[in-house]
């Protein structure tokens, strides 16, 4: 399962079935359940009026426990104080653990395909700190070089969201990271 923002659920001409979350699932042979909404974050409620924790509780918590939950975002939390982001991220992890104690979790930090503002790095650092403290794997998209002379191919005209090709790049990166960490295959009974 995935919970996240517009990068996770798709935006503009890229629907949910074309998002990096869906493409990661295809690459790994998974049946995904994808929750969240554009503009949302750990603290930021976006236009839909809910946080990642709200999306988890509304869209996912009532379902059977998944093998893995990928929590992806932070992009929309850059206007909030990192103390609030830390607290909200920790509370989401605690909520998931209380509901699904055996489910493995991975946190993916804020996604910026182009140059990220300084606040994005502060959010990334806050989330990485929470993940380390809670013993959850943290993946950092800000460390990647997404645009290498092909800006129009991977980035929508809004300069923020990925195209289908940009989502495919994100999916290859995430699938590779999950495989490298031994989290890509089914580990059931």
TrEMBL record:
Query: What domain of life is recorded for the organism?
Result: Bacteria
Q: Which UniProt keywords apply?
A: Hydrolase
Domain SGNH hydrolase-type esterase as annotated: residue spans? 2-168
List all membrane-crossing ranges: none
Gene Ontology molecular function = hydrolase activity
Q: Which residues form a coiled coil?
A: none
Give yes or no: UniProt keyword Hydrolase. Answer: yes
Q: Which SUPFAM superfamilies match?
A: SGNH hydrolase
The name on file for this protein is SGNH/GDSL hydrolase family protein
Q: State the organism named in the record.
A: Nonomuraea typhae
């Amino acid at each position: 399962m995935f919970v996240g923002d517009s990068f996770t659920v798709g935006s503009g001409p890229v629907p949910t079935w074309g998002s990096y979350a869906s493409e990661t699932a295809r690459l790994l042979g998974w049946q995904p359940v994808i929750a969240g909404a554009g503009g949302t974050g750990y603290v930021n409620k976006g236009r839909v009026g809910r946080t990642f924790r709200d999306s988890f509780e509304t869209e996912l918590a009532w379902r059977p426990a998944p093998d893995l939950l990928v929590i992806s975002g932070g992009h929309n939390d850059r206007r909030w104080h990192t103390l609030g982001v830390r607290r909200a991220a920790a509370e989401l992890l605690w909520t998931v653990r209380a509901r699904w104690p055996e489910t493995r979790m991975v946190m993916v930090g804020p996604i910026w395909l182009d140059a990220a503002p300084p606040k994005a790095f502060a959010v990334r650092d806050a989330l990485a700190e929470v993940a380390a403290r809670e013993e959850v794997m943290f993946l950092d998209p800000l460390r990647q070089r997404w645009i290498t002379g092909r800006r129009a191919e991977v980035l929508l005209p809004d300069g923020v969201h990925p195209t289908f090709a940009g989502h495919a790049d994100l999916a290859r990166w995430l699938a590779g990271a999950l495989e490298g960490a031994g989290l890509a295959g089914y580990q059931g009974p």
